[in-house]
């Protein structure tokens, strides 16, 4: 059985408070059940009973409608003939675009949208998604079969495509439920950071009534659009039932959906056991920089030190050797996990704490798993390292992240951590203050619609705020 059991003296809640189904074979995915809870502290946030109920209903729906079923066959046949299918199954297709953090946030957003609209999600598997994540739904697959009729078109669903909703609106081809105008068999939603006002109409109540009738929705997105779903009145009532604690949406969805494959899990556990498990305290520092000019390194480094010392996350390095033996206190081992594409930040930190003693007498150990140097999205091993590092960051006690980075957002959400966010350095100096503690662990919707139909709800909804690191972004608090 895989209910809560005692292992190495620790009670582990393998099903994460009911979030996970018990219907999987344990060895198929080591990260899914107890293996994961041995590394992670139990989350203090419990999923609502209603969320658990909806997840189990979703799993049944996915089994009924997923690949290989008669329903799927019927729905894809009608799609080939551009006809409306009449079955009970409606679908969302995810196109794999942008970096891993972007992908994970978009998948979580789409999955919640699917829960709200009784659809199932299917994932474009032409890239490396199945090398990264285990299947989350039992007895079926979340991968879109490669012979899906629109596969060859997936890469063409850009902003100008005539089947994308914003473009249709621009060309005055709005689908209209009150006229006899034909409802399309599929619709593309272009929700990429450079989308336009007509694309943003997707987040309007009235437009939801229309897209609800379309059997296939294809999402071309790289955004965490959940905050704006809360601003659609008909969804808000349901969302409050699902997530009475509003700032736990991504935390629960991520723990439900994203289980690293055994290969990635091996990387996570080897790092964890070698560098983090014996520490008294762990600190994660995510350094995402887009500039490698000589001066830039110094002021980002200054900023990291200013932030970690001001917030008492790291001790200072004493200027002279401390001779008095402070025996009243046993020195602690502090492990610092740095993630970055570049090696120089962790090298400087490691040297600092080797060259001089820490002011508190504590030992500081600095570790950086990889230095990939440049982003190589969709390359299997590169992406696996990125996922392993996101996961490792999420296992730390305290976390410092770089502003506006989806990589950091995923780590904080998975870990249930409110990070200290490093502000964007401006004018070649470290900003003052260097960092700010996040209001909540939720990711920021970096390009949220703020005007049009959502203008009023943005103003009157107290739990959706402007992000700390992006004044025009929205996040749940
Ligand atoms: P964002 O661009 O910061 O929002 O995050 P994304 O994850 O969407 O895209 C950045 C990509 O660059 C990652 O997915 C990785 O491929 C790579 N990358 C950036 N920072 C790191 C890092 O600290 N470690 C590793 N291994 N890869 C990184």
From TrEMBL:
Subcellular location: Golgi apparatus, Golgi stack membrane
Signal peptide: none
Enzyme class: transferase
Chain coiled-coil ranges: none
UniProt EC number: 2.4.1.-
Cellular component, GO annotation: Golgi cisterna membrane
Alphabetized InterPro entries for the sequence: XG_FTase (IPR004938)
Keyword Glycosyltransferase: yes
Membrane topology category: Single-pass type II membrane protein
Superkingdom per UniProt: Eukaryota
GO BP terms: cell wall biogenesis; cell wall organization; xyloglucan biosynthetic process
Single annotated GO MF: galactoside 2-alpha-L-fucosyltransferase activity
Protein role: May be involved in cell wall biosynthesis.
Record family assignment: Belongs to the glycosyltransferase 37 family.
Protein name as it appears in the record: Fucosyltransferase
Organism encoding this protein: Arabis nemorensis
Origin organism lineage: Eukaryota, Viridiplantae, Streptophyta, Embryophyta, Tracheophyta
């Amino acid at each position: 059985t895989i209910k809560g059991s005692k292992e190495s003296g620790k009670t582990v809640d393998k099903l994460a408070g009911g979030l996970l189904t018990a219907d999987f074979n344990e060895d198929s995915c080591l990260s899914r059940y107890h293996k994961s809870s041995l590394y992670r502290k139990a989350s203090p946030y419990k999923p609502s009973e209603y969320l658990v109920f909806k997840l189990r209903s979703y799993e049944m729906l996915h089994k009924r409608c997923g690949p290989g079923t008669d329903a799927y066959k019927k729905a894809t046949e009608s799609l080939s003939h551009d006809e409306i299918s009449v079955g009970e199954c409606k679908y969302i297709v995810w196109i794999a675009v942008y970096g891993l953090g972007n992908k994970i946030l978009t998948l979580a957003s789409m999955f919640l949208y699917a829960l709200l609209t009784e659809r199932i999600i299917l994932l474009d598997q032409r890239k490396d998604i199945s090398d990264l994540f285990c299947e989350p739904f039992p007895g079926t697959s979340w991968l879109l079969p490669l012979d899906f009729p629109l596969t060859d078109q997936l890469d063409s669903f850009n902003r100008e495509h005539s089947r994308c909703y914003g473009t249709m609106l621009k060309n005055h081809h709005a689908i209209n439920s009150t006229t006899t105008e034909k409802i399309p068999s599929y619709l593309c939603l272009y929700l990429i950071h450079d989308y336009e006002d007509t694309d943003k109409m997707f987040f309007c109540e009235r437009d939801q009534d229309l897209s609800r009738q379309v059997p296939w929705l294809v999402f071309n997105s790289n955004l965490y659009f959940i905050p704006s779903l809360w601003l659609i009145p008909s969804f808000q009532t349901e969302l409050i039932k699902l997530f009475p604690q509003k700032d736990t949406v991504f935390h629960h969805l991520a723990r439900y959906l994203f289980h690293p494959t055994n290969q990635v899990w091996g990387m996570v556990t080897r790092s964890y056991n070698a560098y983090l498990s014996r520490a008294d305290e762990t600190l994660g520092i995510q350094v995402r920089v887009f500039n490698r000019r000589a001066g830039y390194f110094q002021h980002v480094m200054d900023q990291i030190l200013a932030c970690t010392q001001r917030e008492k996350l790291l001790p200072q390095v004493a200027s002279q050797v401390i001779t008095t033996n402070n025996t009243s206190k046993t020195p602690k081992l502090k492990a610092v996990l740095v993630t970055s594409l570049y090696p120089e930040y962790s090298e400087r930190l490691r040297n600092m704490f080797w060259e001089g003693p820490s002011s508190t007498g504590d030992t500081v150990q600095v570790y950086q798993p990889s230095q990939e140097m440049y982003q190589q999205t969709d390359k299997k091993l590169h992406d696996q390292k990125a996922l392993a590092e996101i996961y490792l960051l999420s296992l730390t006690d305290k976390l410092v992240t770089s502003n506006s980075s989806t990589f950091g957002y995923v780590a904080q959400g998975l870990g249930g951590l409110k990070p200290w966010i490093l502000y964007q350095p401006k004018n070649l100096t470290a900003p003052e203050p260097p960092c700010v503690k996040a209001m909540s662990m939720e990711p920021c919707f970096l390009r949220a619609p703020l005007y049009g139909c959502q203008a009023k709800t943005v103003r009157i909804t107290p739990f959706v705020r402007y992000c700390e690191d992006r004044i025009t972004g929205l996040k749940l608090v």
